[in-house]
Specification:
Length: 676
Amino acid sequence: MARRNIFQPEPSVSIASHPTSPLRQRFHPLWWLAICYVLIGAVTRIALLSMAGGGVPHNPLYWAYAFGVGLSYDLIAFVYLAWPLLLYLWLVPRPVYVSRVGQWLLYIGGAVLLFGLLFVGASELVFWGEFGTRFNFIAVDYLVYTTEVIGNIRESYPLGTWISLLALATLVLVWLSRRGLKAQDGGSRFLQRGKVVLVWLVITVVTAVAIKGTYKDRTDNAYVNELSGNGVYEFFAAFRSSHLDYARFYRTLPQDAAFKRLRELVKTPEATYVNDDPRDLTREIRHAGPERHLNVVLISVESLSADFLKEFGDKRGITPNLDALIGQSMFFDNLYANGTRTVRGLEALSLSVPPTPGDSIVKAHNNENLFSVADVFNDRGYQSDFVYGGYGYFDNMNYFFSHNGYRAVDRNDIGPGETIHHENVWGVADEDLYTLALKQMDEAHAQGKPFFLHIMTTSNHRPFTVPANRVPQKNGTREAAVAYTDWSIADFIKRAQAKPYFDDTVFVITADHCASSAGRASVPIHRYHIPLWIYAPKQFPPQRVTRQMSQIDIMPTVLGLLNFSYRSRFFGADVFQREPGRERAFPATYEKLGYLHGDVLSILEPQRKVEQVHPNFINGDATPITPMDEGLLDDAAAYYQSAAYLFKHGLLAHKPADDVPVQPAAEAAPDAPAPH
């Protein structure tokens, strides 16, 4: 018996004689796509559950929730993803659809869709491994910088091999399931098919309006909530929420009440408000005695989590130089970052403001001429530079810094004949970045200017490649990148010691954020713990500072150590001036806004939801607080609401009056007790 060619179109049959309706025949491939997508979603969820490890307890209720709710979101995402195939099935005329060409188009189109779904699933595994979540705002953000992101993936993973394997898997799956893609149509009419499309459109609109990505967040485990989502759905939900208006989405106070509360929260003993305007945070910071115009080198180290240090329990010995530096510096061991992205660290260190929901100010529109740390230094004749080892167009860094008091210096400023020991897609190796920084320091010193440098490193970032023969750890691993970060900082300080300005230079070393943001709680506090060294052996004796502080407090504290008297609208404060018991920090994601005060973490969320917990500072877990402390929730709202309002209305801008010199305190103030 002759075997029929599988690509031969089905013989035409009449509507009356065929048991299956023509409409069902025509749209049968949608069932094929739905089954494929649901199976891929389930397999992806199983893989992510395995990757979460101990983050998800062995509790059948958690598993049932993740897979049950996850299936619902998969089906909702399928409604959107099926539109290309749906339109093809609707629009192609029957003679073309059931022809050999039509059958091949269906096979090829199905293969393309299936490959795309498999690729997205594989991408989710990579994204989860890096960030511990499904696709979110970070994935949206990265789409803008395809050169760096694709380059990072190519340098980190065997992309060619993976794509080849996915293509092979696609061909095998299409072959095995080819009956689901048979082009059959016993006589459907265009208007008949249009009714299906109309119903699909109604379902699409209803789900888009009625369903939100946050509806799944009903358990006390952040991993389970993430597993319950769908990566594609979460991606587009994050895209829609990239510009979150605080007043519209979050808990608010009456605006004047928020500012009145904030003015009490940010005041410190050495500060005096310049007027009674409730919405003006301008204060005169006054110290007794002369200012110390020392050079300041601020190093924000990529992904330098506190738990990389031996001091905080790491047993691998990958930071020997930084561990040794603790005993030679003012070391702050209870510091928390503003966020989980580099731009959040840059925003905190340059503007001293809490994070705004959605986009960072570094990337926002109308972010020019803001009152910045550089303005304070520039008023004293400093040369203020932002120095970056990559290309500063990434994340809008060059634009932001060059329009807010800094001179932007990046990879373009390394001449063609200058030595580069290593570079990857993110930039040159840290040692080459420090060579570039030393060049700026030398030039400023030669001109008789004190200098303020903000250096942003890149080596401790995937793909974790570093120069050969620097560290014993295997190249391309996080351990090697951290060890090299440690080595290069020590090498930088050693080279700086040979400079005539070393004794008059203060090195401020901290992190932009931690290396990981994943945890069981919605804001896992241990993923925000970062270290801080203020190293100036000829200027400040070593001491340990244990008081809780925020990333936005770093530069006001440095300015206090320099005895600067100046006008300020910073939200941060000099930790040596803030009274005990008033410590707070602002750990946040792009939409969850945290306010840490002592051992209470208050979290503001979209839809005006709030959460309040006692965080576990070791493993990031959280215990809900009942009843909630409304005063702390109002404090959190006052900070975040006012910061968002001031930026939106242009009130964070630098003003001419900010440059007016502030006279020191008339009488010598007693030494402030060192906080512990």
